[in-house]
Amino acid sequence: MSAWFVVGVLSVVAVSTASAATTGSTKIGYLDVAKVFDAYEKSKSEEKALEEASNKKQAEREKIVSQVKKLREELELLSDKGKDEKQVQVDEQLARLQEFDTQARNDLRRQRDAVAREILKEIDGVVKDYAQKEGFTVILNDRVLLYGASEYDLTEQVIKTLNARYSGKDGKK
User: Fold this and answer.
1) pLDDT tens digit sequence for 104-149
2) Helix, strand, or coil here: 51?
3) DSSP letters of 72-100?
4) How far is it, in rounded angstroms, from Cα 146 to Cα 43?
5) Is there a smaller number of Cβ atoms within 10 Å at the N or the C end of the chain?
């Protein structure tokens, strides 16, 4: 699968280079998308928001765990007849805890995925705008490169542009 990806990227580069050769010059750059993602202020802000949501879910979980512990303590003090009833309550709370864990994990994963998609879409838009503005023919993700000279690395420029847009310096947000 990755071999096809490399072949596809090389084909795009070849076609872009061929079309650029007919019009004049080729300008190629690359960037470290992971570094851009991590250095983007919106990523940091969204990560904090996700951490807060996770902490709220953890607090809710702790309440359920506390209820289960209380029920188990009560279970130990009861006679055999009363233990059956209390065990049903313990089992119900444990099932509720498992359901809560699954739901919380899924909700947080969906939120994180949505945020990542949104941020990657913004990065893509900034890269396209930057490429057009600066006259780049091709900008590659550094993961497909075997080697790239540092003068073709656009990572810092893209980070600056993203953070400027996020902070509203150029009127967009």
Assistant:
1) 999 999 999 999 999 999 999 999 999 999 999 999 998 988 888 9
2) helix
3) HHHHHHS-HHHHHHHHHHHHHHHHHHHHH
4) 27
5) N
| Strand duo 138-141 + 28-31: pairing | parallel
Which letter does DSSP use for residue 168 in this model?
T
**Residues facing 31 on adjacent strands:** 141
Q: In whole angstroms, what is the distance from residue 92 CA to residue 69 CA?
A: 13
Extended beta strands in 6-107, E state: 28-31
52 burial level (CB within 10 Å; 0-12, 13-18, 19+): exposed
CA distances to 36, 47, 59, 99, 127 from 41, in Å: 10, 10, 27, 34, 16
What are the tokens at 87? 């065990």
Q: Where are the beta strands (DSSP E) in the chain?
A: 28-31, 138-141
pLDDT digits (tens, 9 = 90+) for 29-41: 999 999 999 999 9
In the chain, DSSP finds a helix count (H) and a strand count (E) of: 5, 2
Q: Which of 28, 18, 40, 23 is nearest to 120 (CA)?
A: 40
**Phi/psi at 136 (5° precision):** -80, 140
Go through the domains of the chain in sequence order and give each one's CATH number. 2-167 (3.30.910.20)
